[in-house]
Amino acid sequence: MDNNNKISKSTFWSNLFKTPARKSDLEEVLSSMPTFKHLNSTQLKYLLEIAHNRVYSAGEYIFYQGDPGIALYLITDGEIRIMKHNDNSDEIELAHFNRGDFFGELALLDDDVRSASAIAVKESKITVIFRPDLDKFIDRFPKVGIKILKGLAQIIATRLRLLDEEFLALYSKTQNNSDEVKNE
Fold first, then answer.
1. Structural domains of the chain, with CATH
2. 3-state class percentages of the chain: helix first, strand second, coil last, to nearest 5
3. pLDDT at 13
4. Percent of the chain at pLDDT above 70?
5. b (16+ CB within 10 A) / e for 33-44
6. pLDDT the model gives residue 63
7. Could you give the C-alpha distances from 37 to 31, 32, 62, 126, 134, in angstroms and in order?
8. Model confidence over 109-129: pLDDT tens digits?
9. What is the number of other CB atoms lying within 10 angstroms of the CB of residue 148?
């Protein structure tokens, strides 16, 4: 997205609990995700109780690069772009997520700030699980909590492997271009 196209202001703290929970949507998304599909009905019910549903308009920021990382976001409907500003203030799209995807998982594992911004492409329904709530869930169901964290770690590892492959492909391409320039 070019810098002339400004996107609406952040609603990082606004419109919490704007829409009532549509548990069937969330249950469907959770049951399709390897990280959460092993929950029994009691555990799922408790997770649904700690989950917060929000609706974002097209162009609305879910969080900004540099915001505190405090939650995991699950997309129950809509599309989200993950954007990063580089040193030249250019916006670079890192990822594009849809229904059933999640993002912000690093916030559950570290205390760092957001490394990128998340923006709704179109009206999107997002379920938010805040770190303190997940910590309580893990205290109540430690074995399942370990499985959830292990599942998140596996997904992070998979994303890192894919990023490594993309980096190597890009590096090889730049090396080949450099060799071609030298040979001319």
1. 23-183 (2.60.120.10)
2. 40, 25, 35
3. 34
4. 84
5. eebbeebeeebb
6. 95
7. 4, 6, 25, 18, 16
8. 787 899 999 999 999 999 999
9. 23
